[in-house]
Amino acid sequence: MARVVAVSNRLADPRKTAAGGLAVALGPTLNETGGLWFGWSGRIVDDRTEPAQLLKAQLRNSGNVTLATVDLTQSDHDTYYLGYSNSVLWPVFHYRLDLAEFRSDYLDGYRRVNRQFAQALLPLLRDDDVIWVHDYHLIPLAAELRTLGCKQRIGFFLHIPLPPPLILAALPAHDWLLRSLFAYDLLGLQSEADAAHFAGFVMSEARAHVLPDHRFHAFGRVLRAQAFPIGIDVQEFRALAAADEAVETWRNTSEQYAKRQLLVGVDRLDYSKGLPQRLQAFNEMLHRYPVHRNSATLIQIASPSRSSVEAYAQIRTQLELLCGSINGEFGELDWMPVRYLYRTISRRRLPGLYRASRVGLVTPLRDGMNLVAKEYVLSQEPENPGVLVLSRFTGAAEQLREALLVNPYDISATADAIERALHMPLAERVERHQALLKNVVRYDVQWWQRQFLATLQERAEESHAAV
Fold first, then answer.
1. Same fold across 4-231+446-458 and 234-442
2. What's the pLDDT at 142?
3. Residue 367 appears among annotated catalytic residues
4. Which position among 13, 78, 159, 174 bears the catalytic label?
5. How do residues 387-402 score in pLDDT, each as one tens digit?
6. Which of 333, 383, 407, 462 has its CA 20 to 30 Å from the CA of residue 118?
7. Selected catalytic residue, list 185, 367, 416, 444
8. Fold of 234-442
9. How far is C-alpha 66 from the chain's CA centre?
10. Is 134 a catalytic residue?
11. For the structural domain made of 4-231+446-458, what CATH number should be given?
12. Stretch 83-100: mean pLDDT
């Protein structure tokens, strides 16, 4: 098997179980193939740093994997990472054009850093490598590599949602981004909805020819673009759930809330997660269904994220005001309806918290996939499972149809869904959970990486062929 080269904005040591994310997904394949993982070191250096130093990757070994990192200058970090990646692409791809900052220096920095990454990566490549690039930070990387003469197979996976064509068309230089994607051999997306948005975009903006097997011809190249829904590492998460810390969390939480019905939400603090709407729906549920007063308790964990960005500071303030309002109106001396934690909870404790909760609330306004939904399903006791309330605007909703699917913008209907979840009979809970669990186990993270890499290897030559 050819060596796999993974490229992402940040990387992690695949030997460390706490690394999570891509480390869990890619670790086995990278180890098996003696792979290379390339990305930003996380270090910010002075703007006066010599360009040659920025283009020289620092190498270290992690088992059978080589980790290669490069530094960023402060100006590159501010324009490429904070700027174009997270102040333009992130809001636009999550349908929030109103929050995007369209500055020309952001786009210049984004192009410059992708060019630098390509120049630093190229000397490390072998002729038969398979290159797998990850996420929105690096959309133009393949185009930069092709310019330098790279002929290896290159695939790209977008971990966040892809919006409809008219929203994408609002991006300045969207035509350049689209052309950049056609430098890849394979484009992986989280959902069929995202794949449909891409098809509509390339047909309307590039007049692409649609070919069989999810292929599109434009700009003199053939690109295969299809959905590869990402999953979780089922074996790793089950091991976490059986470990002492998760079991202790489950026991302590179950005892503490023995007289309550517990609901849980675990999210990164981000405007895409629909947290204010979730609290408003919980508030509406308490108003309309008084039977749940002094009974239902929502534990909402919001992990800090980009706290220096104004939009994130505003949503934190909004959440704190909502929690205070709900607790002030409904709380009793021995019961608070909302327990809000603005902190990161150890991943080792999460399976126990999920297991102790009657209802899991996963209600983003838009999300590429959302693996919390799958972790919640996997954590449940099969003979007495909780109920997943899931936003229809997540990629996970395409797979997890047996959840209670909601429109998080519809506060009243979401409140009704929460009440239904709290009252759902055991037989229905078990039936729904069995179907959900079957899907989570079958389409795990190993399935995801096998399918993507197999498709990339199979269709590389055909992707290069002109029509």
1. yes
2. 98
3. yes
4. 159
5. 999 999 999 999 999 9
6. 462
7. 367
8. Rossmann fold (3.40.50)
9. 25
10. no
11. 3.40.50.2000
12. 96
